[in-house]
Amino acid sequence: LQVQVFVDGTWLYYSFFARTTRNCEIRSKLGAYWYRDYKVLWERIPVIVGRAIQEQLQAQQQTDRFVEVYRTTVFSSLRQDTDPESLRMRMFTQMQRLNFDVHLSVTTGLQEKCIDIALAVDMLHYATVPGAYVHFQCDELPHIYRDKDFMPAMLRTREKGKRVGLCSMRNSCNRALLDPAAHTMDFGVIWLDDYFDELFEKQRGRMENSPMPADMLCEMVAGILEKHGSAMSSRLLGRELQ
């Protein structure tokens, strides 16, 4: 059984690197500045997805069918002046070295990024390609205006005869996707939270060129502002940073 994984790279970055301690399982487990002492093994995500699907098939259908993740496709965007040594840029560079198909659009100002549209179009394109592919989406942006953007694409992909699943994190997954009445999935959700022990690797010493806390704070603020339409009061920003 062949599987293709579609990754919302913007969601993945903010879920790992730009959440406050209050609502971040990674920071709670590894510390506020965990990225200095640990590295993320991005190559483990396709492995986790493939293994989880195989386990679910064994439990549900009593089959030992081998599951192969044959492609991992990532969509995100970057500002033209993004620092090549930033956590965000290094994440995508690492993925490219792992032979993930990384699609990055360059944006300026408040320009619409269209990441959701690009991912949905690609998913539906491959849904028309002959073959028994399973499409796994990883994942959904927790933005109030974009929570359900992928649901029509997931539904239409299933209507094309492809099986669809979701890989997410518990603190940033829209609950509408989990409703059985939505008919968006053929498998149980794969929660990355359950695989932290194999996603992170302890490093010896401090990471070279690791951003200082002030740089991390700037990235966190930028992420919060982006989720709120690039404008919010200082009081609300303070609450988000707590």
Automatic annotation (TrEMBL):
Cross-referenced InterPro entries: NYN (IPR021139)
Domain NYN: 3-181
Pfam families documented for this protein: NYN
Organism domain of life: Eukaryota
GO MF term (any one): RNA nuclease activity
Name of the protein this chain belongs to: NYN domain-containing protein
Organism for this UniProt entry: Tribonema minus
